[in-house]
Amino acid sequence: MADVVQYRLERMVNELEDLERRGLFSRQEIAEVVRQRRKFEYRLKRPSPLKQDFLAYIEYEKQLDALRLLRKKAVARGLKEKGNKKMKKSLSDLAGVSRILEIYRLATNRFKGDIELWFQYLEFCRQRRNGRMKKVLAQVIRFHPKVPGVWIYAAAWEFDQNLNAAAARALMQSGLRVCPTSEDLWVEYLRMELTYLNKLKARKVALGEDKGTLICDHEAADEKQWRDENKELFMGFDEKRENDEASDIQNTEAEKKVDLFREQGLSILRTVYSGAIESVPSSFSLRTRFVEILDATDLAHSHEMREEILNDMKRDFSKEPEYWDWLARKESQLEKAMQVYDEAIKVVPSSAIFCLYIRFLKDAVGHNNGEVPSSGDFVSYNHILMVYDKAESMGCITEDLACEHISCFLQLGRLEEARKLAENLCNGKLSDAVDLWVLRLSVEMRCVTERCGYSSKTDLLSLYEHLENVLLKMTISKAERLWLMALKFFLNQKQYFDKLVELSLVSLIKDGGSDDGFSLSTAIVNVFLEQDGVQSARETYKRFLALPRPGLSMCIDCIELETNLALAGDRKCLLEARKLYESALATYEQDVSLWRNYYTMEIKMGTSETANAVYWRARKLLKDNVALLSSECL
User: Fold this and answer.
1) pTM score, whole prediction
2) How far apart are CA 391 and CA 379, in angstroms?
3) Vertex 605, ends 602 and 610: CA angle to 5°?
4) What is the rounded distance in angstroms from the CA atom of residue 594 to the CA atom of residue 590?
5) Which tens digits make up the pLDDT trace of 319-360?
6) Of 411, 391, 412, 410, residue with least CA distance to 402
7) What is the b/e burial string over 3-28, where b = at least 16 CB atoms within 10 angstroms of the residue's CB?
8) Which of 88, 86, 294 is nearest to 191 (CA)?
9) Quick one: pLDDT at residue 60?
């Protein structure tokens, strides 16, 4: 390995001498360059070089070559000021790029499957206009024929850089044979053919044999149409009559003359479109991209072709909500777009189409921009509410749509209507929706606040009864947000809060406590601690710990509570903490962290005897994990 590295360094001698002779680098800098290159060469020659080794070497050589180029320009300016001739190219001007290319070659030989590395190699060759580009393109196509981006990149280089349209066309057609289901390949092939046709037309225009372009300028077309319709405003009567006669003659000649380029463009688009939908018949996005290309170009009979594509899309995708959403957003007028959505609801009555319809209407009135609806926008917001009602009446309402419906009322300041709607939805088929219940509770809290804290007993009783039914149906982990909201809402209603505590005991018996994550019992204990003090909290957590499966999280939280009080000087709390540890270890005796915390507490607040007793008990029970305990504690 050392011989190979030394040989490669010796081949750099002429280049380094040239750098010193031309005054671009000093001897000390060249020595540093040699040292860095030797380090990189040894990395590349080890048994299993990493990709990062090659990339680091390439980056170093790129920075070195950039520095050489800057210094060369500075030296050239100095020579020019002295009246000397320009600096000629020498070995050092070419050696840097050659070395980088060689490193890329070695890297791609080592990591043939890394497509990102291949593209970096290609991009460097393209930027430096190196003659190795064609060879590298052939290699990457040979190794990665199933990657559409490779064919597109190769054809783009042939078309844009090498100016060889025939070779680019051959590459794209080969790529389509290998990857017939690639949408990008079909679209880029069509773009390339139309671009080539437009270049040919531009050449005819430059020679004075034709006029116009295949690129469709909608603003210019609209302006021309307006001027043609109102041309009498810009000329006198006699001039108008003469121009009308001349215009009629020109129009007659234009009708006889066929624009071959526009006809050829339409033929190409029709051919590519037919092949694309035959290869990828289920792709909706491919059809939309063809429509975008058609709208951006000025082809013969483009309107008929557009209608043909739209009819095909309606035939194949009329049951897809995204088709109707795309079709509606293509309309320039809001009323026509709404008519499209209304038709879609009849064809595809689903929650998805209602979501898209409502999102469109909200965008139309500036909802997504955070704007406050003005008086003129209330009609649109009322229409949004009508769409929500229609979704509910057709049975397409979902939890998300229901929450958005309520939020829409809240945004408009119609709190009482929002409350009634939330009540109806929670009592209907969405009675199990957690987010909907959370939103309903928040609305009820706002109503209570606006009524200066007053809420009728009937409302509270009805709300609690429905809430109880929901909480009993759901697991604690699923209804986490609902439990927290309910505890907060009924905090000052002792009768209902006590019922919630009893309800939580029933739920914990059914589901068990949590070993990690949310702990309902801990949340309730914290409420009692804040409201009634330590003794009440202690009585509460003892009730929870008496359940069959209280959960590790509950045990740890109670231990933390007693430990914090013990650190404040309450010795009674230390005894309670020990009881809690013993109770937890009776169920979780193999939990290393529990033993470790117990041992740490005894070291801080207990005696050496109690600490040693805990340690030796842990050693006896943990066995395989005793090393972990020792490493953490000792």
Assistant:
1) 0.72
2) 19
3) 35
4) 9
5) 999 999 999 999 888 888 889 999 999 998 999 999 999 999
6) 391
7) eebeebeeebeebbebbeebebbeee
8) 294
9) 95
